[in-house]
Specification:
alpha+beta, about 60 residues
Length: about 60
């Protein structure tokens, strides 16, 4: 799966704006203290999350 999350770039106490915008709900965040996770079975690789991540924590490889 080419979508990767770098949790070191995700700030603590932060609601992920990219997770809320995923059109297929493949990107989820358990709580504001954790980095988002990618469900590879749902992800359609549209890269919307990559574009919307303000910290550059979501990358497409």
């Amino acid at each position: 799966m080419p979508i990767k999350i770098d949790p070191t770039k995700c700030p603590k106490d932060h609601s992920c704006p990219a997770a809320a915008s995923c059109p297929v709900s493949a990107l989820t965040q358990k709580d504001e203290k954790s980095a988002p996770q990618v469900d590879t079975s749902k992800c359609m690789e549209c890269q919307m999350c990559v574009t919307l991540c303000p910290r550059g924590a979501i990358i497409f490889e």
